[in-house]
Structures are given as structure tokens and as C-alpha cells.
Amino acid sequence: QVQLVESGGGLVQAGGSLRLSCVASGSIHSINAMGWYRQAPGKQRELVATITRGGTTNYADSVKGRFTISRDNAKNTVYLEMNGLKPEDTAVYCCNADVTYFGRRGYWGRGTQVTVSS
């Protein structure tokens, strides 16, 4: 089994910054893509950003230029640096990891709450 644990969420004023972290642990041979997703109340979960093992990134249009995803392969950790936060960024942010261990499977963390006040 693999566990993903997010941290770094909180309450911040509009225009502020937060840095989220997600650490993967357990039965891991390697981690392929990792990503951050978010779900606001009453809305569907949406992609925020993804990053491949080699560092290729992809962002939702709504966060381009404000958020930066990065990872540390040695630590099985993915980060999300969020700047210029807006009230519409308020959501539960979850990380996802595509893990290889005698097979390949995706795992989700439980999420961390980000609340941006106006």
C-alpha cells in the first residue's frame, strides 16, 4: 500500500501565498506523474497541476503564472507553490501519484484545506 499525506494548507488573505507539500510512502519502486487537484464545495474535482518524473509540468489555465509545481524524487514529495491567491482558489487540495510497484496504480491523498479570504 501507498500513503499520500498533504500539508501546508490554511487560511490566507487574497494576494497571499501558501506552499503545499505531499509525501508518498509505502510500497514504492518509482513514482511516475504526480499532481495536485482541488475540489470546491458544490463543484467537481479539477486538475490544478501535474509534473512528470522528468519534470515536465502542466497547469490549469486558471493558475498559470501564479502556481508552481515541483517535486523531489529522492523524497517522493511533490510541492505546490501558490502565489497571488484568490478567493476562487478556496478548495480542498489533494495530491495524486502514479506509482509503480510490481504493477502500476494511482493513489490519492486525503487533502488539505485552502481558504482564501477577500
Characterization of this structure:
The protein is mostly beta strands and 118 residues long. The protein is built from no helices and eleven strands. The chain has strands at residues 2-7, 10-13, 18-26, 30-39, 46-51, 57-59, 67-72, 77-82, 91-100, 104-108, 112-117. Strands 2, 4, 5, 6, 9, 10 and 11 form a seven-stranded mixed beta sheet that branches. A hairpin with a 4-residue loop joins strand 7 (67-72) and strand 8. The mean pLDDT is 97.
Please give the structural blueprint:
Layout: E1 2-7, E2 10-13, E3 18-26, E4 30-39, E5 46-51, E6 57-59, E7 67-72, E8 77-82, E9 91-100, E10 104-108, E11 112-117
Parallel strand pairs: 2-11
Antiparallel strand pairs: 1-3, 3-8, 4-5, 4-9, 5-6, 7-8, 9-10, 9-11
Quick description:
The protein is mainly β and 118 residues long. 0% of the residues lie in helices and 60% in strands. The strands form two sheets. Strands 2, 4, 5, 6, 9, 10 and 11 form a seven-stranded mixed beta sheet that branches. A four-stranded antiparallel beta sheet has the order 1-3-8-7, with no helix packed on it.
- Number of alpha- plus pi-helical segments: 0
Helices and strands, in order, run as EEEEEEEEEEE
Identify low-pLDDT runs. none
Q: Main beta sheet, described?
A: 7 strands, mixed
Distance between the termini: 40 Å
**What percentage of amino acids are in beta strands?**
over 45%
**Which word captures the global form?**
elongated
Give the oligomeric state.
Answer: single chain
Task: Tell me how many strands there are.
Answer: 11
What helical percentage do the residues reach?
under 10%
Mean pLDDT: 97
Compute the CA-based radius of gyration: 14 Å
Helix/strand-derived class?
A: mainly beta
